[in-house]
Amino acid sequence: MEEKRISQLRYDPESDRMIFDGRELHCGECLKVLVCNGLNGDKPEWVETRVEYGEDWYLEGLLGYQVSGLFARM
């Protein structure tokens, strides 16, 4: 089994893509992100989602989160 990597998501304006561990992400790619969503108190948890693009980059099911800067695991 391949080891999961953890990296901070960042936006690359030159390619207009989100970057994970030096690799460009594409719409529909699945990942887990570390968020505090209030369902588990103040304790951060890994939540499964996928990255999508509309007017800007967003995470499916996690509206309101700024994608760039979140820690992700793939």
Identify the notable features of this structure and list them briefly.
single chain, 74 residues, mainly beta, five-stranded antiparallel β-sheet, three-stranded antiparallel β-sheet, globular
Could you please describe the fold and organization of this structure?
By secondary structure, the protein is mainly β. It is built from no helices and 8 strands. The strands form 2 sheets. The chain has a 5-stranded antiparallel sheet with strand order 1-8-5-6-7, with no helix packed on it. The chain has a 3-stranded antiparallel sheet with strand order 2-3-4, with no helix packed on it. The two termini are 13 Å apart. The relative contact order is 0.31. The mean pLDDT is 91.
Brief synopsis:
The protein is an all-beta fold.
Secondary-structure map:
Layout lengths: L5 E3 L1 E3 L4 E4 L2 E2 L5 E6 L9 E9 L3 E3 L11 E3 L1
Antiparallel strand pairs: 1-8, 2-3, 3-4, 5-6, 5-8, 6-7
SSE series: EEEEEEEE
Radius of gyration: 12 Å
Q: Tell me the overall shape.
A: globular
Mean pLDDT, as a whole number?
91
Strand content: 35-45%
Say what oligomer this is: single chain
Low-confidence stretches: none
**Please, how many helices?**
0
From the helix content, strand content and strand pairing, which structural class follows? mainly beta
The profile of the biggest β sheet is:
5 strands, antiparallel
Per DSSP E runs of 2 or more residues, the count of β-strands stands at 8
Strand order of the largest sheet: 1-8-5-6-7
Helix-residue proportion: under 10%
Query: What is the distance, rounded to the nearest whole angstrom, between the alpha carbons of the first and last residues?
Result: 13 Å
